[in-house]
Design a protein that fits this description.
The chain is an all-alpha fold. The protein is built from 17 helices and no strands. The chain has a domain at 44-284. Helix content is 56%, strand content 0%. α9 (172-189) packs antiparallel against α10. The model is unreliable at 1-19 (pLDDT under 50).
């Protein structure tokens, strides 16, 4: 995964050292920072269609065009280059699922439907797999606890847990295919299986103890149609491949697997993962999260759609991705480089991975 500490330089962190999990969890709230975060960004909360639509559509169509190149190319090097480009483009397109879990349902008319049609269903990852799940990660009393679907104390686990965590992403495309082609249709006639699949295999979560509650109302109806679309697409892929050859599907699986591994690596450095299940203050949650601000330009490849400002996003979850850079500039100018705010800024992917590895080596 491309990253370079020499190209991605940012203020070095002053956060708690690895192993200071209890201190981090009980960090008193920096009320000045929290107040500034709200007051300085009041005008940045609108999701702008002129940015969302072109970005998502260009990412999706680039992914499809490059995937076609990877399938049709006769030169191995060209096919590989197209595959990498397709993986990066689809990865960016797919991460709009994160924005869909935050923006108001009426903010971008038609965006959710088109995204699911072009990206979510073809990748067998409809938006319901994150909507209703990701907000739990932002809940004040859930973050970093056993009730958080997106948190594990990775920094306090054994070193072997990190490569296992990373490499399981390689299995994701096949697992999604089996889910939509086999488990969901069987669940339609076997209610206990349907309940199990929903509770344990219908959310983009990393906490193995997380069980999802049954959907209700309008959300349940949306889930039904998205599940039906994903299952129909999975059966089409299998049927077409059995009749015309498996090479295109296998290349597609490899491309999606590359994006999944990249996302898993990003997840490894999205937080410091040092909380042991305690309820944390808002400032403690912020300091357990990570910003990788400019000037590093490679970050836009491995943390696109605003995810380079992940700590800031935890302060301001309703601010859309395209406004986070401006919010970061305002807060840095207002609070100064020695403030609590800048303590969540790190230099890049490799320094964060190194910190995480060192933490696992000293864990109890």
């Amino acid at each position: 995964m491309p990253a370079s500490t020499s190209l991605e330089k940012a203020p070095q962190p002053l956060a708690a050292a690895p192993g200071d999990a209890a201190i981090l969890a009980r960090t008193p709230d920096d009320k000045a920072m929290l107040r500034a975060a709200v007051e300085l960004t009041r005008d940045l909360g609108e999701a702008r269609p002129a940015i969302f639509w072109p970005d998502m559509l260009a990412s999706a169509f680039t992914g499809y065009a490059a995937l076609a190149g990877a399938i049709l190319a006769t030169n191995a090097l060209l096919a590989a280059a197209c595959g990498v480009l397709s993986a990066l483009a689809f990865y960016r397109a797919l991460l709009f699922i994160h924005e869909l879990s935050h923006i108001h349902r009426n903010a971008l008319p038609g965006f959710r439907f088109v995204w699911n049609l072009l990206v979510g269903i073809p990748m067998l990852t409809p938006s319901f797999m994150y909507e209703g799940v990701h907000p739990l990660h932002h809940a004040r009393t859930r973050y970093g606890t056993v009730e958080d679907p997106e948190y594990l104390p990775l920094a306090l686990m054994k070193p072997w847990s990190l490569p296992v965590f990373l490499l399981t992403a390689l299995l994701l495309p096949v697992a999604l295919l089996v889910r939509s082609a086999v488990l969901v249709p069987l669940g339609a006639v076997i209610p206990p299986l349907r309940r199990l699949v929903w509770a344990r295999a219908s959310a983009l979560a990393i906490n193995p103890s997380f069980q999802r509650r049954p959907p209700e109302g309008d959300f349940a109806r949306m889930v039904f149609w998205q599940e039906a679309g994903a299952s129909a697409w999975a059966w089409f892929l299998l049927g077409w491949s059995s009749a015309h050859g498996w090479r295109p599907l296998l290349i597609g699986i490899a491309v999606i697997a590359m994006g999944a591994v990249l996302n898993q690596a990003r997840t490894l450095v999205a937080h410091l993962w040092e909380n042991e299940g305690e309820t944390m203050t808002v400032t403690g949650q912020y300091l357990d999260s990570v910003n990788v601000p400019p000037p590093g330009w490679l970050t836009v490849l491995w943390a696109p759609v605003g995810l380079r400002y992940h700590a800031l996003h935890h302060l301001l979850p309703s601010v859309p991705y395209h406004a986070l850079g401006e919010a970061h500039r305002r807060l840095t100018a207002e609070l100064g480089t020695g403030s609590t705010y800048t303590r969540s800024s790190y230099a890049g992917l490799f320094p964060l991975l190194g910190r995480l590895v060192r933490s696992t080596m000293t864990a109890r």
